[in-house]
Amino acid sequence: MFESLSDRLSDVFGRLTKKGALTDSDVSEAMREVRLALLEADVALPVVKDFVAAVKEKAIGQDVVRSVTPGQMVIKIVHDHLVEVLGGTDSPDLDLNAAPPVPIMMVGLQGSGKTTTTGKIAYRLTHRDKKKVLMASLDTRRPAAQEQLKVLGEQAGVATLPIIAGQNPVDIARRALTAARLQGYDVVILDTAGRLHIDEALMQEIEAVKRETNPHEVMLVADSLTGQDAVTVAKQFHDRIGLTGIALTRVDGDGRGGAALSMRAVTGVPLKLMGLGEKLDALEVFHADRIANRILG
Ligand code: GDP
Q1: 144 annotated among ligand-binding-site residues
Q2: Phi/psi zone of residue 287: left (φ > 0), alpha (ψ -120 to 50 degrees), beta?
Q3: Which of 64, 146, 171, 185 could cross-link 137 (Cys pair, CB 3.0–4.6 Å)?
Q4: How far away, in angstroms, is 278 Cα from ligand 1 center?
């Protein structure tokens, strides 16, 4: 097991107290521990560097040297800065503030939890917010994908667009929006196809769907356990498609939260939702505080 950052800093400052006065190099030693802990939490290196520099500046500015409990003070500075970089204490939710039917496009790699998250969002909007929701799978490459969403819809008590064989993703998206308009739906969630890796064909397909539907939210679904790969994926999707939010899945797993920090720092896209299990109700708004505590340990 990893030693937690809180324990490490206590160790560092425990030694320092015995030594007496705190010097510049003592603060540097504490920052080395912060740096190591972030790297162990799988935070991307450039993000770690910026983070440590910012925390060091804050620590020095607040005069840790003369603080009675320098360890606690540094831990608080690190914690507060983590929360800030992760998006602050106000949890953002999905933005549905547009004329209905509001299109939401879900993107992400295969296996990230995209279809499950689509179902969870639909379930929440339907049963908690009393919205009329239509889901449509645009995955025409995996034959079982459209069927999977249909089954999920039945479990969730949410309508899915009837499957018509042979249609391409843009055709399906257009049909979903038309059906939603005609049948008075509030929200249409489009579950785009995933791939094992990002490729040009996938990006072109998603771009075409985006042009056709002008989604109000473009949500990347990313697996928190994939660490730095999640960051690369987020950056590529954001550069090419333009994301409005990230849903982090498998937060119930034993990941250390580094992916969340890196994705936010690298893309600037807000983390809006987190998945905490396989069940339909295992979805919450993103809590920066909780992820910060997990990184701190
Ligand atoms: P997709 O290929 O991206 O559409 O992935 P799926 O939605 O089919 O999910 C892949 C697997 O991950 C399924 O077994 C889901 O039940 C599981 N899964 C999705 N989200 C979560 C989550 O937040 N926590 C856990 N533990 N499992 C999840």
Answers
A1: no
A2: beta
A3: 146
A4: 6
